[in-house]
Design goal:
It is a single chain. This protein is mainly beta. 0% of the residues lie in helices and 69% in strands. The protein is built from no helices and six strands. The protein has strands at residues 3-8, 14-22, 27-36, 39-44, 51-59, 62-70. The strands form two sheets. It has a four-stranded antiparallel beta sheet with strand order 3-2-5-6, with no helix packed on it. Strands 1-4 form a two-stranded antiparallel ribbon. A hairpin with a 4-residue loop joins strand 2 (14-22) and strand 3 (27-36). The radius of gyration is 12 Å and the shape is globular.
């Protein structure tokens, strides 16, 4: 799949940073989304190779990291 969808559920607008790292820790995508509420945002990963990545999402200072596998 060439898109990575991130669901955000917030009752107030929040700023969000999404960073995709490859397995060696290199940043491959870094995007900022402003005033996001309850919606999905999309990262285009079509230029990235198959493999294991880590998605770091920061919303209002709260960090979450998720393992992502692109086949």
């Amino acid at each position: 799949e060439n898109e990575l969808n991130i669901s955000v559920q917030s009752s107030v607008p929040v700023d969000m940073q999404a960073t995709l790292f490859d397995i060696s820790g290199r940043v491959v995508i870094a995007e900022t989304f402003n005033e996001v509420m309850s919606q999905s945002v999309t990262l285009d990963v079509s230029n990235e190779s198959q493999g294991v990545y880590f998605l770091e999402v920061i919303i209002d200072g709260q960090k979450s990291t998720t393992k992502v596998i692109k086949d």
